[in-house]
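A protein record in our archive is deliberately plain, so that people and models can read it alike. The record that follows is passed on verbatim for readers who wish to inspect the format.
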Amino acid sequence: MGEGWQKFATFLTHAGRQAPDQRGSFVNMPVERGSTVVFPTVEDMEAQGVHAYDHRLVYGAMGNPVQHRLEQVIAALEGGSHAQVVNSGLAACSVALLAFLKSGDHLLLPDSVYGPTRRFALGMLARFGVETGFYPPRADEATLRAHLRPNTAVVFAESPGSHTFEVQDVPRIARLAHGAGARLLLDNTWGIGAFQPFTHGVDVSIQALTKYPSGHADVILGSITVQRQEHWQALRRAAIELGACGAPDDCWLTLRGLKTMAVRLAQQARSAHELALWLESRPEVAHVRHPALPGCPGHEVWKRDFTDASGLFGVELAEGITQEAMIAMLNGLKLFSIGASWGGYESLVLPTSGGLTRHHEEGLPKGAAFRIQVGLENVADLKADLARGLDGLAP
């Protein structure tokens, strides 16, 4: 576990670097901050304005040089042709949805979708006349067909789900969505580098660059990648109309973070897998939801479609352990901070039982459950910290 990330190590080390010139130059490109772009003549400004779809400098709100370099790296990493960087992972979800939906359309979300994406669909999209339905994340073909409508314009996927970790059969979803005339959008944040979206039928791939690409818990940023020119035209038009862009400092920090992402993810994947296997052996644990483990829903699909795993997984405690007892255990951990994000260098825990919204019962934990983000600490130290907490529980 962890070796799959290494295929990107050389690419990430060299991508986005400053090209040396005869006078010498720094390895990393400089940060250029600005809003107004000035031109020698009106004719020059008008000539540059036609390049708003070409990752060229037109106006600060349409992108900056560091953003454009980051977009090139993300597009290559995801296997697409173009990427649009926006100010957060949620913005990446919302801008992508707004780009491909209109009033009267039907949106189909997996029931395991990221909570803020659900909230955006049921809030703002509903006010704009878009109806949203929810399908079980591991729906078979007949069930998924039954959820599709003549006006379904977008099917959304998130594989695995960021709280319950169901791995979705993305190629099958793509086939059914395209057969119904819909586009498939995927939140691929968990699978960056381990799942190539466009080889599996995805039309639009979404990343929270906040997570593994930046890697240091100090950036909020997102990206949307496409492969087909028609999708780029729709996406870029929406980004321009919404004023969606990335701050140059955040883009620069993410470019820097990408240089070490392969080695960080390799380490985090190995540590998470070892910790997940150890947790499976504990009597206080009923289920470990890690896609690389045979007991995780969709494990066979993960083996078929992914080249590796990440450092995020779920734990469901044994029957009889209360939510209150679990929270007391989490509060007592020393190396795991309590936080809702993931993908940084630090280990985190987050309760996932009692607060999840579902339209279908499938996938909900039956007992007290929490999510683990494995950072870069020594895995033996993480085991010892969890062991102290689990020892205090009485199933």
Summary: The radius of gyration is 22 Å. The chain is about 35% helix and 15% strand. The mean pLDDT is 94. The longest helix spans residues 261-280.
